[in-house]
Amino acid sequence: MRLVILGGGESGVGTAILGKKKGYEVFVSDFGKIKGNYKEVLIINGIAWEEEKHTEDLILNADVVMKSPGIPDKSPIVKKLIEKVIPVLSEIEFAAPFTDATIIGITGSNGKTTTTMLTHHLLKSAGLNVGLGGNIGKSFAWQVADNKYDSYVLELSSFQLDGILNFKPHIAIITNISPDHLDRYDYKYENYIDAKFRITMNQTEDDYLIYDADDEAITQWFKTHTTKAKLIPFSLTKTFSEGAYIKNNKMEISINHEEFTMDTEHIALEGKHNMKNAMAATSVAKLMQIRKSTIRESLSNFQGVEHRLEKVLKIQNVQYINDSKATNVNATFFALDSMNTPTVWIVGGVDKGNDYNELMSLVREKVKAIICLGVDNKKIIDVFGNVVDIMIEVSTMNDAVKMAQRLSEKGDTVLLSPACASFDLFENYEDRGKQFKQAVKNL
Fold it and tell me: Residue 205: pLDDT above 70?
């Protein structure tokens, strides 16, 4: 069996190691450059590879292909594979059959990283032997090759779910759905929604789907589709006999005739959206039979995720917050919604077809100044130019932070929440967030 892997990054190299271990003839092909550390791993393991090209003769003779999530279906080599009816899978689909571990899969437009990290924290704190992977951390396939874990918490993007056929998590979570990455889905929102719901397509009556019952796209989907999985909804406004909700500042969860309650003020994460993330993660913990005292302790000591509403420093009584991970409007909506003080907002980058009008009421209410940090800020200026008194364009993070310090006064917040991808000025959102934190520390 010949396994060809497109993309020599984390998921590609992890799949190569697993494939080799399972007796496949493995070849890795990357159209770009392969990073030095990954090349070393391939060489040490005796795995054939090429970079900066796709040699068709070495790829189109595959029995199965694993495509890294960043490569679109529209790329010429993928089209040729599909024409030849060679199966093109995601890493998750390839690796899952090689493990008996319990799989918890988490998807959604926003909140999935926080929910994944919190779920992993809850299970690990309870002493479970649990791995963390998917879109974050070490490649799932690589971990399956090492065969150390009894369960996995996987963050799954729509791109990863596009490449599944039989994959099914025992517990699935859909945190929410809002328009994102529509360039990959022919600019059709319904295609993107369907991609997210692939997480439940193979689930049976013995499996669970945890979902946001306040989310319009999710509730609409359920009107015309079904899943065999047992449904566990969570909500900020509704109550359920089976599910999770907030009532009188208490998180209440009822699953399989078992109750769990906790005062929301004791939960370390702040903001309404984080209450949803906490309900989703706690629902998993309940399904995995974790003790109430352990759940309460873990929810109260969770540190949060880097670059997601991360408090950096307070300088002259101004709080600086790094929300670089907010790469779409919906994520920034959550961030602005959780601001309780006048805010200097740093925004901008590569726009993925954003509609900034959704933020209008929050900007009117909370934002005193906008700093545009992007190569092309025209759209942001057009929308908010008449709403905010001060709008300034800058082209470096240092200038953005210095300007924010000048515009802010005691009791204000400076919020980096770009609502855009970062590729115009930075390597990625992590690089953008790190530069922000460094610039704040240099003030």
Answer: yes
